[in-house]
From TrEMBL:
Domain ABC transporter: 5-241
Molecular function via GO: ATP binding
InterPro entries in UniProt: AAA+_ATPase (IPR003593), ABC_transporter-like_ATP-bd (IPR003439), ABC_transporter-like_CS (IPR017871), P-loop_NTPase (IPR027417)
Keyword annotations from UniProtKB, A to Z: ATP-binding, Nucleotide-binding, Transport
Nucleotide-binding found in the keyword field: yes
Organism: Actinomadura parmotrematis
SMART domains (alphabetical): AAA
Name used for this protein in its record: ABC transporter ATP-binding protein
CDD domains for this protein: ABC_Org_Solvent_Resistant
Amino acid sequence: MGVEIRVEGLTKSFGRQTIWQDVSLTLPAGEISVLLGPSGTGKSVFLKSLVGLLKPDRGHIWIGDRDLPYLPERDLYETRKLFGVLFQDGALFGSMNLYDNIAFPLREHTKKGESEVKRIVMEKMELVGLLGAEHKLPGEISGGMKKRAGLARALVLDPEILLVDEPDSGLDPVRTAYLNQLIVDLNAEIGATFLIVTHDINTARTVPDNIGLLFLRELVMFGPREMLLSSEEPVVRQFLNARRAGPIGMSEEKDMSELEAEAKMGMEVGKLPPIAPQLMPSDGRVRPGQAPPGAWCAAHGVTPPPGSFVDDLGRNWVEEWPRYVASMGHSSAAGHGQGGQQPAGGAR
């Protein structure tokens, strides 16, 4: 099971440049969270701070009862063993085949014998669909396979926290969809706490239990997915709609004259798109981080955008959810997160 991460008042600068300041959020144990934001807002810096590769200027990162930025080096080293990290490009060693790449953390950080190493490596390779490719070099495989190999390596120490940096980077939409499903399946299987940094709107709308958005050196919002996907904040609406109109500019922030010019031309950030059904694990189970669709909106008196929670077969999952849960043998109160709809495309 994953562990909760509490971030309190975190600030990071490089010289005179403030990357972000006073960031506070809680990543719930065992849930999938996504961090969005325009390019250059420090999302990858935030991941590196969480794992202790960068030290913040001030603030706290609580992993259980351990405050990561203030740990002695030996305790920091031990705490890092709770983490698995999937880097943007997989970060594989080009001179090692996939088997040795995935085995590397086990050989580096444990005293397991080679028979035990082989058992674990092959188990993780099977989990990410790479059996049969263990003798291939990174230069001989596709970008999607590199991502999966990097994911397998991130999993070999059975992490309680998994950080994923732009899993869609360099992948086409179809491979991204497969990788998204794999992430959801892995969360259901291992119960780790996931944090994904991404620019991919479809990933953000269908995968996580929680979403955050970084902009202008601040965390604009973080919370259950329905909270952000139904928000009327202009920067949220602009980002979700991928529009030029709005506060985000080419160099991050637009000045007042640009915004006034857009207003005169009648340019708008657009209406919020419908809240999409959330991906389910391939076996159809309800993950602990999931809750009935529409639950957050109903509890907070928020009317979701028209067409929300309807899949591509026209099924409304606010209505279908009780029947689905009953058919799967779950308690109707299963989950405590934000989504839990059958993915668009048909019942399992």
